[in-house]
Write a structure and sequence with these properties.
This protein is an all-alpha fold and 176 residues long. It is built from 7 helices and no strands. The chain has a domain of 76 residues: NADH-ubiquinone/plastoquinone oxidoreductase chain 6, subunit NuoJ (Four Helix Bundle (Hemerythrin (Met), subunit A)), CATH 1.20.120. The chain is globular and about 55 Å long.
């Protein structure tokens, strides 16, 4: 009973923070909402007894990558970007007509529907296998990570290296 209450409470908080990521007008608040959403997701993994995955989620994603995002957002001069768009696109910063806005909305809704439909069918096609092996342990994840998922693991390391180099370039002072 307690697990069910915790699941619904954490899930509700996760949904609220996810909406906060998208709905917030400030990029800093969006990143902070994303950190909170990652922590709520880790709570769901704890309920599934996947403690290693929860720890990795908090340490790597919420603790490192999203803090990196926060630094990038804080380094970018938002006022300068807003002034650029205001000068280029008029007083409101918008140059779209009503017809173009409706067309983009229709395309977005259609693309979202297609993505949802594809995701639903992929999830339904995955066979449910009951295994007696412990899932979520360090040994099971390490075995899968370095056998079946070695290439995505290495590609992720290159992606993170690229993100770090990008932050260093953005943070570098103009030396002229």
């Amino acid at each position: 009973m307690l697990e069910t209450v915790l699941f619904y409470t954490i899930s509700l908080a996760l949904i609220v923070f996810a909406i906060g990521v998208v709905a917030s007008r400030s990029a800093i608040y969006s990143v902070l909402s994303l950190v909170a959403a990652m922590c709520m997701m880790a709570g769901l993994f704890v309920l599934l007894k996947a403690f290693l995955v929860a720890t990795i989620l908090v340490l790597v994603y919420a603790g490192a990558i999203l803090v990196l995002f926060l630094f990038v957002v804080m380094l970018v001069d938002v006022k300068k970007i807003n002034n650029f768009y205001m000068g280029t696109h008029g007083r409101d910063g918008l140059s779209l007509s009503i017809r173009q806005a409706r067309l983009r909305l229709c395309i977005a809704v259609a693309a979202s529907g297609i993505i949802f439909w594809q995701t639903f069918h992929v999830i339904r096609s995955i066979p449910v296998v009951q295994s007696s092996a412990a899932q979520g342990t360090a040994q099971a994840i390490g075995h899968l990570l370095f056998s079946s998922y070695l290439l995505p693991f290495e590609l992720t390391s290159f992606l993170l290296l690229t993100a770090v180099v990008g932050v260093v370039v953005l943070a570098k002072k103009d030396v002229r």
